[in-house]
């Protein structure tokens, strides 16, 4: 498929900045059905995203603190946009810690995960935060990266390549809870994802808490029990779950750069500007962790077609103290008619002229929140 590149200005009725920054974003062409990737955690190949557009990126500056976020009326909010951004330095930003400290799973467990959990509770008022996965992205984009072989779930080795002896330390890191992805020096870091996507559809979110990791399933047992009871009664979850005795739950991705972002920044699409017909379901092959098998499952997500009025947001020159909270699913928002139920499309975005900059380094923590 031959890609097309289109430059599109913002929709009428919105004020453009004097010199808007344009970023390259890749959509699935109209009328085309993308082929799923055979690789774990991966979206379809970049050749499947042939509708390439240069679109304005709306700056999210000034970035508020967590305490001032509720009163930041002109700032993106989780309940409206599906994402938000806050200025939130953590313990690892102070001496004696350095950039290398952010690549040490032991330090992340000791300091960063508790800091992140406390931040989320303050922002959304949830009672419980469960960190399920930590991803280190530190490579230039490639079609198949460390995600594909995470926890030994890649394809079989060629016959003439000896199988390396098992490394239980690395295996425990990759299959533990939370699982750490991109921290294995033998496979390298994870690369950016330059394809607008949403990690989970509502059905995919429910598959995720049941299939991704046995520890996650155990943590979500009350949610699963309440949902299974409704299903046994023939009641659609979209219409009945928020009115049941089941706990309110949501999935988030907490995204933070480890150094000043000079290339491949993350851009987020205001969920209100994507029409229902522009969502494209896609299966995403995912390992089932915490088990003794190499079993995988399909976690359903969304891709998108372009539609006029799409509003992409970013933090220009994003610094390590500036963090993005990305909605992936919210059971309360499902009942309000949102097709993606509080999730928002996001993508790394190519800025023309930055191809020679050093790779972006970022850390992503995926969490289950329960009220």
Automatic annotation (TrEMBL):
InterPro entries according to UniProt:
AsaB-like
**Which PANTHER family has this protein been placed in?**
BLL6449 PROTEIN, OXIDOREDUCTASE AN1597
Single Gene Ontology MF annotation: oxidoreductase activity
User: Where does the source fall among the domains of life?
Assistant: Eukaryota
- Stated family: Belongs to the asaB hydroxylase/desaturase family.
What name does UniProt use for this protein?
Answer: GA4 desaturase
Q: Where is this region: Disordered?
A: 1-20, 148-174
